Amino acid sequence: MSDKLFRWFKIIYAIQARPGINAKELADRCETDERTIYRDLRSLDVLAPITNNGYGKGYTFAGDFALFPFNWTQQEAMVFSLLPSFVDQSNMPPGFDTAYDKVMAAHLRQKSRDREILQQVTDIIQMGSPAYREDAPNYLFQVIQAIVEEKTITAIYHTQSRNEQTEREIDPYYLVPREQRFYLIGYCHQAENIRTFRLSRIRSMEITSRKFNRGDFNIKSYLKNTWSIERRDQNIQFKVKFSPNVARYIKEEEMFVRPRMTDLPDGSLLFEVTLNHDREFINWVSQYGPDAEILAPTSYRKFMKERLSQWGKLYEQE
């Protein structure tokens, strides 16, 4: 199906570039036979208004239909921009120069428009750097641009746990919003593995010219059983009982996992979920105070008891 879809786009672009092109020429362009082209043209009738101008007159689009933008790859754009250097323009028909200039102008205008749209989107999104740090750099625009263009970035990143800054080469895969912050998930060349980076901890960054390929990376699989953003290779089965006072609010919570929730006869709620990390989940449960009781694992019941004891001691001193 992918080969057919690719061929369909080649047909549309060929007709757009050369109105009046015939079936044989389309077959040569698509490296197939005329019979296949005729079948494709019948199928494309529902997507584009392709018109047969009659015997020997080829195919055109009805009305003002056109497929934009060019969507050139970096290599295609470079090759086309160098075209005048490789052809003998003295043998080209009149109008070649102006036609070439118009095509390049349209391509550059589209790239400029894409950048403007991207900048407008990033200006609207007010996330990524704390409001109280007015001098903090915000690389949201550049990160999104690198993701879209599939280009490696170099960055100076502050690792909070070690309180140190390191230089990284990162293939940016996805930008994930969590709790009023943006996190970048991508391949770290230094760690030689997938890593998660908090956007506000990037101190400086540049987009390189090196392209990358995500391969078979799947963001849903990567974040499976992840409560928010922190993840490990664990398998913790939590059971929490929420009181009737907060049960209805728990059901309205927007979560990144799929817990099992069971209504109990007294109006309370049994909440069961399997996670690969504990910290973010424990913090979330703690905000409900005595309205949330961890039933399992038992080790976390002991942990909560010790934490409550420590908190209590803070307020015993007058």
From TrEMBL:
Cited Gene3D superfamilies: Winged helix-like DNA-binding domain superfamily/Winged helix DNA-binding domain
Domain of life: Bacteria
WYL domain residues: 140-206
Domain named WCX: residues: 236-310
UniProt name for this protein: WYL domain-containing protein
Lineage, uppermost ranks: Bacteria, Bacillati, Bacillota, Bacilli, Bacillales
